[in-house]
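## retry 2 of 3
previous attempt timed out at serialization; input unchanged, resubmitting
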Amino acid sequence: MNRSLVVTAGALLLTLTGCSRTEEEKRECELEAFDLSACDRSGFASVQADGIWKSNVTFDGVDTPAAMLLSSDPSKSLLFGVPLTERKVEGETFFLASDYDGAYSSIRLSVAGCQAPAPDRVKGEFRRCVNGEADLQGTFEAVRIKRVDGEQEASGVELVSETALPRGTAMDVFVSGGYAYVTALTDGLFIYDVKDPAKPTKVAEITPKNDSWFRSWVKGSTLYISSNVEGLLVYDVSTPSAPKRLASLPASDTDIQGWGLFVDGDRLYMMSPSPKAEVFIFDITKPAEPSLRTRYYVPDSDIRLGETPVEGVVLNNRLYLGHWAYGLAVVDVTDVSKPEAKGHFGYDKASSRPVAAGVIGDRTIAFEASEGWGSRIRALDVSDPAHITEVGRFEMRPESTVAGLTLVGTKLYVAHNQDGLRVLDMSNPSTPRQIAYYNTWRETDSGRGRAFLDGLSGVEVPGDGYLYAAETSRGLLVFREQ
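## retry succeeded, writing output
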């Protein structure tokens, strides 16, 4: 799976066993070991270092987005999620390093700046060393996070309420019957009464054991949760304040990773990146008793290349999959027992995750977003899935990623991490037009700077006149369009 699919830059971290220290350790991750003689370092004197930075490390042709938190208090600083142990940011020098111990090995991550094109932007070299010897080398680019130039806090959208979670990281929200179900990864799921959207009230929480929960969906009085360990979890929420666990599916397997979750009529689709890159399709004619109908694998995809299903949406018996390194996959699910691949749209360094689809004019348009550095939304004409064409695109800036898409009519609601909520008019998919926004990201919020995926992470539009969103630090946010 592509490295940026994890919340932290885990590909840069490792724990080694069975490695002994060399007698004379090479010090290849020290500042003196970097050859910066050809660099133009004159711009570093004006770099405003303290704050939160988003970065992209590239090695072996692969991008690995990460985050840096720099503070005048060394104990609060982080480099790619690891406490900072060395900082030299002065004059013409920009050098950061973090050290941690593996089993029988010492590990160091370091970056050395080569140029600073602007006070909030640095480019240079990256290295990872094991026992002082570099085993990974590449380049990095880092940008200090701030609001888009010229923007206010909001335009066309007002904040109705903000409710911090008791703990954890809010990743997604689903609203049904006057209740909001907020998933929070390892801290499980929180249920809020939102009959008065200005005053959400927590009525229940479900805490997993050694698990992480990504998405939820409610049909009638049945709650479905995608689990990182157990696949699909089923709960009775006929009394939302007292959820009752009913089952985990598929019951015959263990360690099935559930990720994306979508209900279309009497079918539930769960995307499972691991271990076999499958889409599980359940019959939920009896909502409390899901019956597994199909385990589908996109035939010409390759799990070894990170081509795995992550998110999906169904429109008119067509399943549109954000299939990570494979791109967008289109599958005919008219006969649920025999899904049929109809086409796909791939691109260089694909990281396809959020998707939405609708009929606009006389065309079927799928909206697909990449995740990671250089994220953008593509408007794809999928009327003929064997010949998919890109007809338009929307992008903010390389350091901000798209985390969620919801299409209502011709309005596309975008959860855009640190660029917050974006509302786009897609009546002409060739020329997306932003009509409203709300900047939710604030540097002072707790938890900022620990991971690349940080900010608005999901948006739900249930049709009650309000917009509900999950924000990694701020929790449950309720908006109203003006």
